[in-house]
């Protein structure tokens, strides 16, 4: 809408005051919290949030493609589901590291 129509200044002030709030915690969040805190220490501060988002997107896309391609052939490749699960776990870790890292640094996630 901002490209075709001029936006009000109140819209811009709403964007500046926006703060991400997660949907809540599950039972596994409490178990994995120590693991995620350890993983956050290995992320350099020079890595941008966009790169972590891209890596997470690539992991979930690879998991989908693996599942879709090998499932459409109607053959039993059990190891493909293990690979897809690993990629989805990596995606989940990257996403949680992304949120934890940039809350610690003070960058707002939009």
TrEMBL record:
<dbReference type="GO" id="GO:0016020">
    <property type="term" value="C:membrane"/>
</dbReference>
<keyword id="KW-0812">Transmembrane</keyword>
<dbReference type="GO" id="GO:0008610">
    <property type="term" value="P:lipid biosynthetic process"/>
</dbReference>
<keyword id="KW-1133">Transmembrane helix</keyword>
<dbReference type="InterPro" id="IPR043130">
    <property type="entry name" value="CDP-OH_PTrfase_TM_dom"/>
</dbReference>
<feature type="transmembrane region" description="Helical">
    <location>
        <begin position="76"/>
        <end position="94"/>
    </location>
</feature>
<keyword id="KW-0472">Membrane</keyword>
<comment type="similarity">
    <text>Belongs to the CDP-alcohol phosphatidyltransferase class-I family.</text>
</comment>
<feature type="transmembrane region" description="Helical">
    <location>
        <begin position="51"/>
        <end position="70"/>
    </location>
</feature>
<protein>
    <submittedName>
        <fullName>Uncharacterized protein</fullName>
    </submittedName>
</protein>
<dbReference type="InterPro" id="IPR014472">
    <property type="entry name" value="CHOPT"/>
</dbReference>
